[in-house]
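User: Continuing from earlier, I have the next pair ready.

Assistant: Great, send them over.

User: Here they are, in order.

Assistant: Folding the first of the pair now:
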Amino acid sequence: MSGSILVVDDEKGQREILTTILRKEGYRVVDVPGGREALARLDEEEFDLILTDLKMQGMSGMELMEQVLALDPQQCVVMMTAHGTVDSAVEAMKKGAFDYLEKPLERDDLILTLQRAFERINLLRENRLLHKRLEETATIPNIIGDHPKIREVFRVINKIAPTGSTVLIYGESGTGKELVARAIHDRSPRKDQPFFAINCAAIPDSLMESELFGHEKGSFTGAGSREIGLFEAADKGTVFLDEIGEMSVSMQAKLLRAIQEKEIRRVGGKVNIPIDVRIISATNRDLEAEIRKGSFREDLFYRLNVIRINLPPLRERGNDIVALADFFVRKYSAATGIPLKGIAKPALKTLMGYSWPGNVRQLESVIERGVLMAESDHIEPEDLPAEVHEAGGPGGKLPFEFPPDGISIEDLERELIIKAMDRAGWVIAKAAPLLGMSYKTLQYRLEKFGIDKH
């Protein structure tokens, strides 16, 4: 046997006999002469089981048990009692003792009772361990998948959600970064407070400071009244800064100060306003590479990157595609009233073979279209967009003929950007989603390639 036992008895001879017997059985044993000494020892270390006499000078075994169980309801206690106090021992069991032994103790009864007690202790320990593992890997609403990389995301979310640490989420566009941020907020002590999300790529730099920190009346043209910013509105809650890599260096400095000082100042204001917000940020950029280029502040990076979560792209998640597709079929079948049974095997094969540059967001869009286009009770390959069923499937072909002399990636990218801009009427904000880029990334590419409307 193995395990630790604290023996509590005010009779020295009885303690010595018990200690000798139990150590021979393989238990680690510590003995103390009374309840107060037992509590002091329990402050220093944990024991699997407490074997205590009921009647003792000073604190009784009953009082000791009540105090111990108030601190740890799962602590195992076995009571020893003289013949005339059996009723009290039974009362102790009603109050939480595992069992009682009648003095004078029979060695075999003692060993058998402790064996049964340790069977229960080990069972409870296994259940706690299993429960902990389930909590760490439990599915989170709206985030679907069983791939090891997604299970690791679940584990990290459950581990760090109760803390107040900043979190930086890495992932390609469409991988579900905002869903992860909301899951962290919903599992935190701030869950009943506001959650605000802002896409840093969608807000012009000239308006970003006002959006985050607010402004005073008359602080700039058009500021007709005082407005509070997201940080002030989200006090005690969470602010999610998506596409943080798109934020200008000057704005990064102001954000850094707000994080460090835990206060903000409205644009045009003179008063510093204390804030208590948890910051979760996300990016699809390599921020460490941006630091080397001088476009992202290293000190801000380390403030944001206390906890890092890496979201895998959909193409790396194997059979998660099937689970996600099934979820979206049920979602849009219910929303549209179209009674579909699922996805036909050839269509599933197509979905599995596609590279999903737009990740989960693209898959959801494809399945929504499939539900609307389906002619039978299953989604068939022809119900999927052409770019998916033409390129999907093992050995699927590229959506263009590969030249025998090879291609220039830069020329191909330039051509795709021009086509996207043409389709979007040369509106950057409309063309960027077609290419899976942020507004600022596309703007940078247009300048890089010298592309303008002729």
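And the other member of the pair:
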Amino acid sequence: MVDLKGQYEKIKNEIDEAVLDVISSTAFINGPAVKRFQNNLEEYLDVKHVIPCANGTDALQIALMSLGLEQGDEVIVPSFTYVATAEVIGLLKLQPVMVEVDENTFNTTAEIIEASITPKTKAIVPVHLFGQCSDMEPIMELAGKNNLHVIEDNAQAIGSDYKFSDETIKKAGTIGDIGTTSFFPAKNLGCYGDGGAMFTNDDELAAKLRMVANHGQTKKYYHGVIGVNSRLDSIQAAILDVKLKYLDEYALARNKIANYYDEAFANVEEIQTPVREDNSTHVFHQYTMRIRNGKRNELQSYLAEKGVPANIYYPVPLYEQDAFKEYVSDDFHLPITEKLCGQVLSLPIHTEMNKSLLQHISRAVQSFFTVKLKF
């Protein structure tokens, strides 16, 4: 699904030099490389504060911990997402309220969210799934009207641009009260281990986020709140700082691949290719199709036989996972989420793909439907 080695080979000299510089300095924790990457990412995102941390799940947890929420408070989260988004809500003894998503964009909407707001609702966590922004302007208007916090889960859409109705453009993750991201190696901006970060334009929130991420302390050995130990190490920061320079180039490469797939499958009526919204650029963390003839699993097996990996993100709604059974009634169902879990299939998409590989993958997909149509 990704070719991290091929990507590394293209920037090997820069990466090796950056890593060796950190090793030579022995400033492994909170060294100059972390501050340099933090500053450069702030500039790229045009956001006041970037607070690095150990991984994307920690980023979500620390964001929630910084908001002063109380046990039992409700946090609205899409049902169709990776487990981490809701996992941290339950971990903090908050109440995850899982809501439906739009079947074309895979993201939740203000209209869907509004129907689930109660007096106990305190926050919304929209997820920019697969590389495209949720429609944030109406979500922010809804949050303002109901005095709700907004945490953007931007683990899959870093670098994406969102356009407001007045033509203002902001980067994904910089619109809500707090944005979070993951630097897992397979992400569009990925390190060579684990890493994450939080973004905010609020000075007070930034101070709280830093404090929570650092054992709840602002001064060594003086702890104002219960916190965690979550930091991005200097080697990973140095790697990320190199790769940040190529992030827009990587997004362009992914879009070219997506365009190729779109054209290849344009006449296959059983496939719905990804829908691109006018108010958001798409950075294609995943190229996720919908297979609408009920043969998704057969297609995945067929592609595996042809040497083509294809993954299902995500096969089970959050509320059907054993870990979340306590938060929903036995008869709780979200039909669009369940439909998507039975239809979605993601093809390889990464920065090192060439035309030969794209042809092989596309022809394998096409041949499956051609064979099915003949008999």
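Worth noting for the second one:
The domain at 4-100+107-244 is CATH 3.40.640.10 (Aspartate Aminotransferase; domain 2). Residues 355-374 form the longest helix (20 residues).
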